[in-house]
Design goal:
Blueprint lengths: L8 H9 L5 H10 L8 E5 L2 H5 L2 H14 L5 E5 L11 E4 L6 E3 L7 H9 L8 E4 L39 H6 L4 H9 L2 H11 L11 H9 L6 E7 L8 H8 L1 H15 L1 E9 L3 H16 L15 E7 L8 H8 L23 E5 H13 L1 H5 L9 E8 L5 E6 L4 H8 L9 E6 L5 E4 L9 H5 L9 E6 L4 H15 L5 H17 L8 H24 L3 H5 L2 H9 L1 H9 L14 E3 L9 H5 L5 E2 L7 E2 L9 H5 L5 E3 L1
Helix pairs in contact: 7-11, 7-14, 8-9, 8-11, 10-11, 10-12, 11-14, 18-19, 18-22, 19-20, 20-22
Length: about 650
Amino acid sequence: MQQISPLDKDFLAWAIGTDSKTPEQAAELAILRRENVEKPAIYVGTGTCGLGAGAGYTLSAVKRFVEKNNIDAEIVEVGCVGLCVVEPIVDVQLPGKNRISFKQMTEDKVDSVLSAIFNGEVIQDSVMGQYRTTNLEPWSNTLFIDEHPFFAPQTRWVLANCGKINPVRLEEYIAHGGYAALRKVLQGMSPLDVCNEVELSGLRGRGGGGFPTGKKWKFAHGTEDKHRYLVCNADEGDPGAFMDRAVIEGDPHRLLEGMAIAAFAIGAQKAYIYIRAEYPLAIERLKHAIAEAKANNLLGNNILGTDFSLEMVIKMGAGAFVCGEETALIHSIEGKRGMPRPRPPFPAVRGLFGHPTIINNVETLANIPAILSNGANWFNVVGTAGSKGTKVFALSGKVANTGLVEVAMGTKLRQVIFEIGGGIAKGKAYKAVQIGGPSGGCIPESHLDIEIDYESLKTVGAMMGSGGLVVMDEDNCMVDVAKFFMDFIQRESCGKCIPCREGTRRMLEILNRITRSDKNETERQTLERFQSIIHLEQLAKVIRDTSLCGLGQTAPNPVLSTLRWFRHEYEAHVYERDCPAKACTELIHYEIDSDKCRGCTLCAKGCPAGAIVGTVKNPHHIVVDKCIGCGACMDTCRFDAIKKV
């Protein structure tokens, strides 16, 4: 990691200390906010999603273009702006002109798009939109970003800076109001004042439980033990969830400021960020941000000249799903095996190393600076009666616009999927959305108009969870979906309690039985198959009621919710040995349309089981008893003559 140089102390003093700025200071902040630029700036989205789409090659192509054309331009790496489906994303800002964003900027498009923009022209097919300003010249015939169907319905508070600022430059975060809340807290509020303000805001934990944050902080604040800890849970183990990673990669100082305020409120002098080792870029950005904050007296001893000190430690986890549960997470930080323990006592009373500990996730803590800057009333006017503020979701699956979405609590699920998400990809029909990860549930089309808040989702057998939204279409089998999540949960069980360890294994066995072909099945196995399905729902309820921790208690949710809304698919699998979605391999049969088959023999040559018979230039036939349902024939056929039945 590069050596961090402290910022000018005078800059820190006026940038985060007062709203009153001289004209010269205001001009300096405007430059740091990129409200205008002195020379061309090119921004490349190099978050994990962008790099996965080839942003590394794009960045190299941008550097080559600038060098080849002898252009004096600043090249800035930024995080993910949210619309992951159109990565790589490249923004260009010319002096006096609005910042304009280009989508799907693969390496081969860089020269043509940049050549045009530097000549005052815009290749419209590549444009995502331009950022709105009040004092710069807009690009003609170009959509504004805030009018884009993906961004227009959103309320971006936590994600406000992601994809816009340089995440490894502290000055830019400060120019956008960063660390002003921390100064306000340290110089004018007591710890109890901070707890009260957060409680009044209505902020609830964004990690899944939804417990009131301010109330939780007060538990630790009120303990007699003065040795307290703060822990940020950035483990994020749910399949399809990537909100925390994107926030850290794109705006790490927002998390650090929120943690510093939280630590002050509960009286902690040491804080841990528990993050999975599979997030190397996020870890790198965190290390850099912590070093920057320390160098500028925003972390460490006597922060901003007060008697408050805070040590920040990064603890990397090994990717165990169970370590998302707070007591298992505590054991992992202590160097023990990550296994939950019974509660009470709750961590706020006796947690890390036996001392009071507050655990919040990334999104919860990232909300704190804005709440303390703008006040509780600013935050709680948005949302529903019991769920205030906004919620960040990772939208993925069979939806047109995958990416990060931040909406006000109370927004209808239909709007998130069909307006922001652009509807189901490839014109398919919607079937369900899995919300809350493996511990959540599936929501059918009949409940798409439900409002997103903690209480409403529970009425349909789902939960908010950390914020994963996995959309499924007509080609998804809900029994297969339940089997996928049950397999994940069973493998990730810590094994401490019998209901979770053995119960999830039995449930997975049942799901495997009902998606299995009857080939080579004995009479006893057939009997077991019919008997086991009778007990599936009962077994799920026993696991839910008797497991030790929250993960075990919610483990049966994928089965319970799919049984509730898609029981007919289970019945088809059990009684008819048929998968209506044609997704369960062993229950699929293939058929050749004799009118379309040209007898080219490619399917027969590619069949690994030798199940296709026929002569050259004559229709072929599939021997059902030999077919293993691999689908190789369908992939090989050039005449669309093979279909699933």
